[in-house]
Amino acid sequence: MKTKPGLLFLGLGLLLTLSCSKYPPSSERLLEDLAVITQYDTKIDFNNYHTFSMATSIVKITNRDTTNVSDATATAILDQISKNMEARGFVQAITPVVPDFGVQVVYFQNTTVYTYYYDWWGYYPFWYYYYPYYPVYYSSYTTGLANIELIDLKVVDPNKKQLYLRWNGYIRGLLTGDHTTAEILRCVDQAFIQTPQLKTTAN
Amino acid sequence: MKKIVSVIFLVFLTLGVVRAQEPTSAGYTPSSYYTFSWNTAFPIGNFHDWVSQPGPAGFDFGGRYLIRNGLTAGFNIGWQRVAKIYDNETFTIPDKGIAVTARNYRFTWMVPFQAVIAYHFIPQKVVSPYIGLGIGGDYMEHHLMIQEYDIYKTRWDFSLTPEIGILARFGAFSDWGAILAFNYKWTTNRIDLYEEESRDLQMLNIKVGIALTIR
Fold first, then answer.
1. pLDDT at residue B83, as a whole number
2. pTM score, two decimals?
3. Domain map of chain A by residue range?
4. Inter-axis angle of helices A181-193 and A72-87, to 10 degrees?
5. Whether A35 and B146 lie within 8 Å, measured CB to CB
6. Of A4, A34, A141, which has the smallest distance from its Cβ to B170's Cβ?
7. A57 CA to chain B: closest CA distance, Å?
8. ipTM of this predicted structure
């Protein structure tokens, strides 16, 4: 009879042990997949905008320097963004027409920028100078981040020399795994898919 | 999971039938008993929206003291976790215009603590069914992990837990036994880490454990 409590204890202990699965550590989680994070300015009506202009290269910012990248991957990403913009009713501006939106991609290497849950939607310094002041969290992980930015060139405050950022899409985790160009392009599409508000009917 | 619970349930029933053959005039009514149980939680309602699968990671420790005529009072404390991994899940925060698509790990772990009143219909019998009500609270931590980030909130709550169960001793004079219980738990806890706030978290629990009775 004494063996029954012992066996039950043993059984309960085994069940408890088996049931307590662990989550992978943060460093492993980071390796797993890309995250797509988007935010748009909820105060504007995209129907008031019609044209856009694409940057011809991707701005790459590392801890050491800032360079422009225009290799095959960069071109593919920029093309994919153009396709998505056109699918949403926007039209590429032809010089000398001043576009309503300027679109650029900034790629961070070794960055620690993270903007999930930030409340602030403020002014944006001149977009070709440097990256804006977002509230950030810092981490010790090395990761890559591509940021697609939609900058308002229609509403400009010349006195403050500032432009407004109306939408951005982050593709995060680029440096940590073997992510193909196809995967990155899928993430570009996903950034648009999860922002159905980004469309225009203006002519 | 269902298979494990079914097997344990069958073994338990068999045990009860075998013991039911013993003379019932013999034996004793426990003055108190203590239980240690393996607990599986099944989130329901809003809680199910957060984590949509049962959590077998949990245990419960309880004590009951006979007041009179089968009426007992006591306590329960425990630990429980429910968790699920969502691949390529998109969630939004509409008022801020934010959308996030990523693999996300969601889990909630909790420490329930309750005062319990239970009534045993036939406390002197080897197999003793009961009904009870637990009143108390929980400490809960809700975690949403995306890549290396762990976004979480901690909350205390008030909880109510009606329960039915069976206490079965291994023999008429045995101090040891087993417990099988099923309960519904309602709490005032909530989760607001994603677009839909989950309120009044509820769950069903199955407890299977060992009991030590005191004469």
1. 92
2. 0.69
3. 26-193
4. 20
5. yes
6. A4
7. 26
8. 0.74
